[in-house]
Amino acid sequence: MAFEKPYPIFFLSLLLAFLSHSVLTQSFKNISLGTSLTAIENGSFWASPSGDFAFGFQQIQKDGFLLAIWFNKILERTIVWSANGQNLAPKGSKVELTSHGSFQLIDPNGQQLWNATPLVHGVSYAAMLDSGNFVLVSDESQNLWQSFDHPTDTILPGQILNQPAQLVSRYLPSNYSKGRFLFSLQDDGFVLYTTNYPYDFLNSPYWSPTEVSGSSFSVVFNHSGFIFVQSSDGSITQNISSKAISPQNYYQRAILDYDGVFRHYIHPKDNSTSTEIRPMSWSIHSFIPENICLAITEYTGSGACGINSYCTFDRRMKNCSCPIGYSFIDPNDVMKGCKQNFFPESCDQASPQAHLFYIIDMPNTNWKCCDYECLKQVSLDECRQACLDDHLCEAASFYLGKCWKKSLPLRNGWFDLSFAGIALLKVRKDNSSTLVPRDINPNNDKSKLIIIGSMLLGSSVFLNLVLLVAACVVAYWFGQNNQNVATTIQFRPSLNLRSFTYEELREGTNGFTEEIGHGSFSIVYKGVLPELPRNLIAVKKLKMVNESEKEFEAEVASIGQTHHRNLVQLLGFCNEGENRLLVYEFMSKGNLASFLFNGQRPSWHQRVQIAIGIAKGLLYLHEECNTQIIHCDIKPQNVMLDDSCTAKISDFGLAKLLKIGQTGTTTAIRGTKGYVAAEWFKNKPITIKVDVYSYGVLLLELICCRKNFDMNVEDENRTVLMDWACDSFHCRRLEQLVEDDEEAKMDMKRVEKYVMIAMWCIQENPSLRPTMKQVVQMLEGLMDVPTPPDDLPSFTS
Predict the structure, then answer these.
(1) Active-site residue flag, 52
(2) Which CATH class is domain 593-797?
């Protein structure tokens, strides 16, 4: 975030006002010698005269207390200083100002946990001041020790940090031990570092001034809300926060947060005479660096987030996420990074395993500092294949025709819309969290039998027993295969599909009672199967299937071979008598229609990612899976969202299972009104371009957060979204499409580009519509978007 630099004269006047204020006599309540506080559950503290601040014990854990200073008049008792963050005090501990003038924290056994260092002598009393400063004072009213001289992670108005002062971030929001980031005043000014956690060694700085002058420096936080670096000659060399705040109306604090961002917070005061604590909250006034995800690029340390994770920054707060196929090592401490949930590829060149993996596309994402090879003048598809074919490659980055291969651990990952490249992540197809020995091919049943057999035969004691059991099993197997009864295959590892019995699914869905969706061809029920990795499933009962059992299973097998991040995963099926059921992974956030049209409007950033995800799912169905699949019914109701709002296309298999001749709409065509291309009405051949048309309508709905056809709008010219969007584009009034969306209005270039893409997709002539590959390239900025008047020539492959 950029900070404006005020005029030096203005700042000098503020500094003079600050200095004059600092010498004013403050009122306080003396804490006499021999007074103590005890760590108890309800808390014990000494308050400042106004009650704004308190010094005492805060219970952090069940039997762990922090000796601290906090804001005492707000609901969120925000801690600004602590003595023993590294070593919490047990219940019954005591902080005491002894009769000899020492100030120390001791546990119930009398062992010293902390003291005011360096040890001071001649202390007459202590006081908690209204400035938030706790002081030990001599008979001559001199401050012999003060908390302002020993900051932890926070500074307050009126506080000055003199070189070489430091702030160290806490480990986690509720863990006050030393963390991974450090604020340091050095010869070159105020600098932010990552540390070689858990040690105190410094890594490279991730924020520092562009230019400084002077020999020594101080950081000044004045009562008007300005935070700046001042050199020894009185000149201001850096502005950290430069927007005035009313000290009468707001509390303030500046903290090196646990995530490495230095933030200036403000909190409204309750200026009434009521003593009731008001439930307001802190808001961010300013912060540095502008984007910590992009700021930290060093090779050492865990970066802005942990290894194998990636960082996003929404202008104020940082978020760490694990990519698909990975999970946090410790969900309570995301900075520890992520681990793979699947078994990695074997290094045995003689046993290639590329077919066991697939590539997940992550637009606008990159991992720095883990490249080992760069391929030049290659296409995106060539980059994908190069990583799949290389057993050392765990991910790749593609940008402007270059492909950087990456090995584990993946470091300094980030997502940022300003980056036009794409990260390619290699993930095992079965995404299994069950690890097997490296030298065993998980699809090689013979190798498993050989190893199991050698283990058993190695024990002569059981040899005869094993042979007897084996003979029985073989006899039983032949007997079962000779019966003319259809057997149920419980698991098909090559397809990762399971064949369920109807009774299993009836019990798993509690008798098909909880309906979560329905359509012309099916009803969907929520179910639970404890033996599956995530327990929850969605069971789709098909209403119309005229195929034979073998035909049905052949079509299911074809669908089961599809594996893509943006497709709902088919887990299994049921094929008993007239019962045809499909079992899918359960999508926790439901379908896109509910998310988009029912008051939960996703952010513009989320909508962009959803649009790209749907396009990539369609691209896979059209061009990248073993057999081309035309969905025929792309609409918000057929796009599901998982926990992280990743878009996944559903019902893509019904086009194959139900056959083109079947229908479920009043228009006697496949698809849904409003999303259906013109060729359905003209008896023309149905191609993948019908999905492109439907996607164009859906893209406009994502941009505008409204349905394609809405009779409830006040302006009848806006009833049909496609017409309104095209008129808005040609009349240069695109802002009205996102008039209630401030985030989208700040990204109007992308809004315009996406509207143009949608207009190409909904062209009446199928030959004028782009392919989904071209759509993905345009969405990601890898291909220019031509202006879409009707007389433009068609896209060429």
Answers:
(1) no
(2) mainly alpha
